[in-house]
From TrEMBL:
Keywords: Metal-binding, Oxidoreductase, Zinc. NCBIfam families: peptide-methionine (R)-S-oxide reductase MsrB. InterPro entries: Met_Sox_Rdtase_MsrB (IPR028427), Met_Sox_Rdtase_MsrB_dom (IPR002579), Mss4-like_sf (IPR011057). PANTHER family: METHIONINE SULFOXIDE REDUCTASE, METHIONINE-R-SULFOXIDE REDUCTASE B1. This is Peptide-methionine (R)-S-oxide reductase. Its cofactor is Zn(2+). It comes from Galdieria sulphuraria (Red alga). GO terms for biological process: protein repair; response to oxidative stress. Its EC number is 1.8.4.12. Binds 1 zinc ion per subunit. It catalyses: L-methionyl-[protein] + [thioredoxin]-disulfide + H2O = L-methionyl-(R)-S-oxide-[protein] + [thioredoxin]-dithiol. GO terms for molecular function: metal ion binding; peptide-methionine (R)-S-oxide reductase activity.
Length: 183
């Protein structure tokens, strides 16, 4: 079942607020619609019921501030970017599952990781279609597709349409947003 979620983000320093206000009706709606103003961003998304349930178990903002380093917090919660070729995983070839560093949700398998030459860890598919959600990011004068953890809404990176087969997608992630659980 897919649900409509209405999310209001208010931009205040260190206080990214979001709230699902409507989630109990099955609706047909464009995947996302972003309305921008100076202080608010409104997102309408269709989400699976399971992902909305999981979101309720996500760590609170206070817990994340204590758990994460200031750089991890900046990238995950404030949409920052690590410099190319500096992260822990861009050149990592170990086997395992990459989890969200904020909440621990499994996001990518090492089997889908490939060398994109970008200097950031790149994958052609998430572990599960509901693990990583996307939305339009119109910051920095570009229109890009932002990738976020579906449980805790943390920023992970961006998705580009220049990946390899079978999906043709490149999930360009920040190492600092991931934690490899080796197998
Ligand atoms: Zn997460």
């Amino acid at each position: 079942m897919r649900c409509l979620s209405f999310r209001l983000h208010v931009f205040l320093p260190r206080a990214l607020k979001s709230q699902v206000l409507l989630s109990n009706r099955s609706v047909k709606f464009p995947e996302r619609l972003t309305v921008l103003s100076n202080k608010y961003k409104v997102y309408l998304e269709t989400r699976t019921f399971m992902s909305l349930q999981k979101e309720r178990q996500a760590p609170s903002e206070d817990e994340l501030q204590k758990k994460l380093s200031s750089f991890e917090y900046h990238v995950l919660r404030e949409g920052g970017t690590e410099r190319a070729f500096t992260g822990e995983y861009w050149d990592c070839h170990k086997k395992g599952v990459y989890e969200c560093r904020a909440c621990g949700q499994p996001l990518f398998r090492s089997e889908t990781k490939y060398d994109s030459g970008s200097g950031w860890p790149s994958f052609f598919a998430p572990i599960d279609e509901d693990a990583v959600k996307t939305r339009v990011d119109s910051s920095h004068g570009m229109v890009r597709t932002e990738a976020l953890c579906s449980v805790c809404n943390s920023h992970l990176g961006h998705v580009f349409p220049d990946g390899p087969t079978p999906t043709g997608l490149r999930y360009c992630m920040n190492s600092v947003c991931l934690k490899l659980k080796e197998e």
